[in-house]
């Protein structure tokens, strides 16, 4: 892959999420999440697909862990399902927690570090019926759920992530409507955004206390963090003030509305001004920002693409962006609904996302320069969807996904050489899976899943990733490897 050395202890892994792989949507006491309910809304999900069976990981977990071991993964990033652990947000469901307990044991037995995410978009539907993330009380319910998972797994799981991509589960779910719960109200999206931040802070505080207080030799052994999806907003014409302002607005909503409360303890003034008509400040109570801005041990970065942003309408002949279904949606950008995303004509993945590995390098370097209080970074997701072909010999020669992977891993290494403190990389995704509003139509796996037989086949990209990990580990600097984070 490259002859340069990787920092000692750099962690290689792969990621999944509960609703995307587990299936068993109504087994052993699990109740509906908002994605189970959303799948029943006509035309919400491409092909009428549902997460009911997904890739049946709930029943195939030991084989899937064996696959991870065969690939040489050092860590596995998975999420727990709130609706399985506390169905309807009532009492703890032992059977649901037992599944995760078995998973953790299986991982540890295979020498794989469990990297647990508490919320990857699957709110219990019962809580949605009480307002979901627009209801401040949901933040406190999240803290209780986090403590229940910690009670069961805190003796074996060290690495905890509160939220995966709160941008998506707030603005895309409540303002844009492409994701569950499919609401299309700008103010609801902003309420969800703040309440998820609050939930993060409450959970971090509760988990630290439950595990012995602040980190330190005698204190908590936990490593706590959050994962954001960070996307660079590139002005279409950097000499045009209208495009520059559009890029500022989108950078604010995609990135700074999340980074700044967490790292600086304040929402960015310019974005507060952009969303003024929605009275965002009413959601922010005294003391909330101190709760939100507690120190974290790592920041997870999910990155897929950057985007070209303009403040002008698209030309009439511009190709329409890919949409999972033709169900009407709204803008996920409160106060900046007019912004457009003109194509730069670069090659795209099957999601229509332009491929630009330099964008990942530049993002990581920018974060390191602009936020002095930035904790160590982990790439908690990066990957690509392509329309795979199973050849007659059964092989999946997914050369584009392999190239995407190599180029983005190289971009991470360049960022490190330019000073970014990146400690690990998780490819999205281990398995083809339920790609949210796209259903099973888009495949991100480095392992192919035949959705009829549930058979798993390592793709060429998966074999390449296994070789890459093995090679990277032999080029680690000879200093003894520190523990991750
Ligand atoms: C991630 O989503 C998820 O964590 C994962 O579950 C999923 O399977 C994977 O990526 C692949 O999709 O603000 O409306 O202009 C994040 C990918 C990147 C999609 C940012 C939405 C912004 C759209 N997201 N993008 S918008």
Automatic annotation (TrEMBL):
Keywords: Carbohydrate metabolism, Cellulose degradation, Glycosidase, Hydrolase, Polysaccharide degradation. Pfam families: Glyco_hydro_1. GO terms for molecular function: beta-glucosidase activity. Residues 310-339 are annotated as: Disordered. InterPro entries: GH, Glyco_hydro_1, Glyco_hydro_1_beta-glucosidase. It comes from the Bacteria. Coiled coil: none annotated. It catalyses: Hydrolysis of terminal, non-reducing beta-D-glucosyl residues with release of beta-D-glucose. Its EC number is 3.2.1.21. It is an enzyme of class 3 (hydrolase). Belongs to the glycosyl hydrolase 1 family. This is Beta-glucosidase. It comes from Leifsonia williamsii.
């Amino acid at each position: 892959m490259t002859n340069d050395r990787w920092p000692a202890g750099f962690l290689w892994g792969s990621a999944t999420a509960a609703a995307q792989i587990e299936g068993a949507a109504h087994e052993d006491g699990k109740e509906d999440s908002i994605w189970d309910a959303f799948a029943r809304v006509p035309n919400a999900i491409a092909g009428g697909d549902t997460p009911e069976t997904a890739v049946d990981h709930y029943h195939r977990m030991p084989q899937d862990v064996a696959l991870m071991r065969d690939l040489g993964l050092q860590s596995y990033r998975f999420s727990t399902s709130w609706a399985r652990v506390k169905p309807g947000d009532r009492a703890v469901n032992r059977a649901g927690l037992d599944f995760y307990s078995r998973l953790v044991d299986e991982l540890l037995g295979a020498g794989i570090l469990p990297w647990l995410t508490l919320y990857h978009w699957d709110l219990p539907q019962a809580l949605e019926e009480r307002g979901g993330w627009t209801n401040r009380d949901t933040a406190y319910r999240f803290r209780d759920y986090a403590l229940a998972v910690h009670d069961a797994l805190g003796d074996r799981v060290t690495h905890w992530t509160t939220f995966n991509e709160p941008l998506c589960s707030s603005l895309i779910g409540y303002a844009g409507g492409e994701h569950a719960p499919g609401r299309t109200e700008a103010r609801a999206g902003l309420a969800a955004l703040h309440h998820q931040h609050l939930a993060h802070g409450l959970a971090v505080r509760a988990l630290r206390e439950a595990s012995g207080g602040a980190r330190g030799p005698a204190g908590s052994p936990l490593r706590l963090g959050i994962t954001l999806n960070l996307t660079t907003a590139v002005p279409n014409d950097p000499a045009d003030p209208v495009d520059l302002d559009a890029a500022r607005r989108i950078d604010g909503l995609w990135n700074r509305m999340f980074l700044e409360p967490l790292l600086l303890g304040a929402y960015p003034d310019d974005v507060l001004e952009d969303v003024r008509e929605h009275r965002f400040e009413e959601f922010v109570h005294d003391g909330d920002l101190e709760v939100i801005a507690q120190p974290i041990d790592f920041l997870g970065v999910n990155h897929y693409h950057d985007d070209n942003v303009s403040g002008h309408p698209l030309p009439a002949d511009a190709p329409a962006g890919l949409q999972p279904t033709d169900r009407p949606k709204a803008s996920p950008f409160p106060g900046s609904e007019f912004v457009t995303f003109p194509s730069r004509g670069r090659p795209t993945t099957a999601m229509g996302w332009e491929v630009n590995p330099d964008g990942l390098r530049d993002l990581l370097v920018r974060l390191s320069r602009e936020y002095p209080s930035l904790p160590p970074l982990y790439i908690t997701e990066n990957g690509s969807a392509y329309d795979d072909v199973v050849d007659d010999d059964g092989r999946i020669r997914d050369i584009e996904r392999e190239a995407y992977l190599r180029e983005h891993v190289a971009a991470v290494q360049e960022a490190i050489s330019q000073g970014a403190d990146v400690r690990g990389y998780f490819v999205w995704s281990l398995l083809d899976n339920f790609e949210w509003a796209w259903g099973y139509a888009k495949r991100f796996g480095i392992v192919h899943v035949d959705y009829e037989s549930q058979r798993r086949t390592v793709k060429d990209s998966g074999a390449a990733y296994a070789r890459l990990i093995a090679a990277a580990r032999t080029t680690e600097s000879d200093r003894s490897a520190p523990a991750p984070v």
